[in-house]
């Protein structure tokens, strides 16, 4: 089973990676930049596996660069607040 199959599993995976990045001293700006790069990669290369991912994909594809950074930041906050 892939980490992308289940949205809660995906959030847990991201939360773990976020915690590791923060403990490693990565700045919030760097984390948000990486989150934006991951969003670009996923939108271009990964077919959404569930409805939550489909909504995020549709939002991402409709967004301009500034809005993509805001979406990535919102995802970071989402996983940060669920840990």
Question: What would a concise description of this structure say?
Answer:
This protein has 83 residues and is mainly α.
Topology:
Blueprint: H1 7-23, H2 28-45, H3 51-62, H4 65-81
Helix pairs in contact: 1-4, 2-4
Pfam families: DUF3243 (PF11588)
Organism: Oceanobacillus arenosus
Protein name: DUF3243 domain-containing protein
Quickly list its features:
83 residues; Cytochrome Bc1 Complex, Chain D, domain 2; globular; 77% helix; mainly alpha; single chain
Tell me what you see in this structure.
Helices cover about 75% and strands about 0% of the residues. It has a single domain, classed as Orthogonal Bundle (Cytochrome Bc1 Complex, Chain D, domain 2), CATH 1.10.760. With about 80 residues, it is mostly helical. The protein has helices spanning about 5-25, 30-45, 50-60, 65-80. The mean pLDDT is about 90.
Q: Compute the gyration radius: what is it?
A: 12 Å
What proportion of the residues form beta strands (DSSP E)?
A: under 5%
Poorly predicted ranges: none
* DSSP strand count: 0
Structural class: mainly alpha
- CATH topology description: Cytochrome Bc1 Complex, Chain D, domain 2
- CATH hierarchy: architecture: Orthogonal Bundle
The helix content is over 70%
Shape: globular
Average pLDDT for all residues: 90
Protein name: DUF3243 domain-containing protein
Organism: Oceanobacillus arenosus
InterPro entries: DUF3243, Uncharacterised_YmfJ, YmfJ/YflH_sf
Pfam family, one: DUF3243
